Amino acid sequence: MASTSDIRKGLCIRYNHDIFKIIEFLHVKPGKGPAFVRTKLKSVTTGKVIDNTFSAGHKIDDVRVETRSYQYLYPEGEMFHFMNTDDYNQIAIQKDMLDAPDLLKEGEIVSIIFNAEDNSPLSVDMPTHVILEITHTEPGVKGNTATNATKPATTETGAAVNVPLFINEGDKIKIETDKGTYVERIKE
């Protein structure tokens, strides 16, 4: 058993007969009244995100988990296949367990969180940034730069991302996986 002071991003807890992963939290200490922790929880079974508030000192039932590195191999329908980088065992995981499946490139290394009790996969943690090549985008219009103008672009994995006007087809860009947003162009 843990308490609200142990809450951190990525912690898996048992709540309402399901296992949830904490994706956001905020400790709040108002001027009047008791402190509390505002959390955003994502169900590892359904993928549904809920908001919940725990009072300070509330006991939470944490789930013991193990994190292992896996390499993404290929998609097959609604399943994504991964290989353990240590012992080369392969597993298949449902597409809905991934936060951003359209940003996943073959060969990418991810962290998969397993329930230590029954060894079932709970969630897939993508790297914070991925580098993808632009396969299609319209040319930027010169003189259209009064503000931070962006245009839609398609990456090699099929993901749609808004990029600045100076990005062209064939450029490699860094994308933040949490928000699916452009970070910078990668020079080779």
From TrEMBL:
Gene3D superfamilies: 2.30.30.30, Nucleic acid-binding proteins
GO BP terms in the entry: peptide biosynthetic process
Keyword Protein biosynthesis assigned: yes
Record has GTP-binding as a keyword: no
Molecular function (Gene Ontology), one example: translation elongation factor activity
Single GO cellular component term: cytosol
Compartments (UniProt record): Cytoplasm
Domain Translation elongation factor P/YeiP central: 67-122
Highest taxon, organism lineage: Bacteria
Residue intervals of the Elongation factor P C-terminal domain: 130-185
Record pathway: Protein biosynthesis; polypeptide chain elongation
Keyword set, alphabetical order: Cytoplasm, Elongation factor, Protein biosynthesis
NCBIfam families membership: efp, PRK00529.1
Job description of the protein: Involved in peptide bond synthesis. Stimulates efficient translation and peptide-bond synthesis on native or reconstituted 70S ribosomes in vitro. Probably functions indirectly by altering the affinity of the ribosome for aminoacyl-tRNA, thus increasing their reactivity as acceptors for peptidyl transferase.
Recorded family membership: Belongs to the elongation factor P family.
Protein name: Elongation factor P
